[in-house]
Specification:
alpha/beta, seven-stranded parallel β-sheet, three-stranded parallel β-sheet, 8 helices, 29% helix, elongated, binds NADPH dihydro-nicotinamide-adenine-dinucleotide phosphate, binds oxalic acid
């Protein structure tokens, strides 16, 4: 940031600084209260795409919040989603197990991508890109968002009734929602029970890279144990790091990754933020501003 914005002084939290001199606060999970009493603060910048970490601060100052929207980040997320959709379609776990046991056995019942219906919850920057890339691989794709959308070859649903319709046909549920009051705990037993149980994968699959607070992990484990859920790929958890004693680590049908489905490259993010600040100081409107009432 110092190299990119030489006309600005950059200070890190913990260093001594004059609170009146701060105009921009760049944050990824700052300690609650750290941004209060900055009388000349103009903009809060989330150093990630998600902003729930900001809204969890009860003393967050009332200033415009901008977030990261970066093609590199979006691509990485779609890579992760596509990788896991294919892992479940092509039974990667089974063949890894077979390899470790030196078992040569194939499966002549292999379903095609075009036999599988994927439902994507959240059709924002990430969800839309993932939906289009899954579609390009031949999957049937539907999506759900708060407001109605229209996407070529992707059936778009919104609202509570739309969610019901989408779930009833979904074999693989991809979750790319933000964590807000409205979405907290949305991936729970009642929702999982509405997924299509009779699909070609032998049961529904959950892929969540949105936020851990979206899922009720006790409900996920119950559904996995009972077979109501066939498998899951989880990048985000109620508590991170995922506690060592969580059963999710060792469940044979669960993939766990350490909240790195899409990692922001520090260089790319720094240059994005510097460009935002420069444009703002030239009098241009801020881009990717978070809606304070919606919380994303
Ligand atoms: P966006 O804000 O662009 O999209 C959010 C989408 O969710 C929108 O389509 C929105 O609907 C929909 N949505 C929000 N609330 C509801 C609701 N109550 N009901 C139905 N739909 C809803 O976000 P991004 O796509 O950029 O990112 C999504 C999330 O991905 C981030 O918030 C973050 O939590 C997570 N993320 C995870 C990463 C990881 O490494 N695991 C990396 C980066 C992001 P509408 O379009 O109508 O507003
Ligand atoms: C983000 C994340 O929100 O990495 O950018 O989770």
């Amino acid at each position: 940031m110092e190299a990119l914005l030489p006309s600005h002084e950059i200070v890190m939290l913990g260093e001594p600084f004059d609170r009146e001199s701060i105009r921009y606060a760049l944050s990824w999970r700052h300690p609650p209260g750290a941004l209060k009493d900055l009388p000349n603060l103009r903009v809060i910048v989330s150093l990630g795409a998600g902003v729930d970490h900001l809204f969890s601060d009860p003393a967050l100052p009332d200033r415009p919040i901008v977030r990261v929207v970066d093609p590199d980040l979006t691509n990485r997320m779609s890579e992760w989603v596509v990788m896991h959709a294919l892992a479940h379609l092509r039974q990667l776990r089974r063949y890894e197990r077979q390899q470790s046991e030196r078992v040569w056995a194939d499966d002549d019942q292999q379903p095609r991508a075009s036999d599988i219906q994927i439902g994507v919850l959240g059709l924002g920057v990430m969800g839309k890109d993932a939906a289009v890339k899954l579609k390009a691989l031949g999957f049937k794709v539907a999506g759900w968002s708060a407001s109605p959308k229209s996407l070529a070859e992707v059936a778009c649903f919104s609202g509570a009734d739309g969610l019901k319709l989408l779930l009833a046909q979904t074999d693989i549920l991809v979750v790319l929602l933000p964590l807000t009051e409205a979405t907290c705990g949305i991936i729970n037993a009642p929702l999982l029970s509405q997924l299509n149980r009779g699909g070609p994968l032998g049961g529904p699959i959950l892929i969540n890279a949105g936020r851990g607070g979206l899922q009720v992990e006790a409900d996920l484990l119950t559904a996995l144990d009972s077979g109501a859920l066939k498998g899951a790929s989880l990048d985000v958890f109620e508590r991170e790091p995922l506690p060592k004693d969580s059963r999710l680590w060792s469940h044979p049908e669960v993939y766990v990754s350490p909240h790195n489905a899409a990692m922001s490259s520090p260089k790319a993010i720094a240059s994005l933020v510097a460009r935002q600040i420069e444009a703002y100081e030239r009098g241009e409107p801020l881009a990717h501003v978070v809606h304070p009432r919606r919380g994303y």
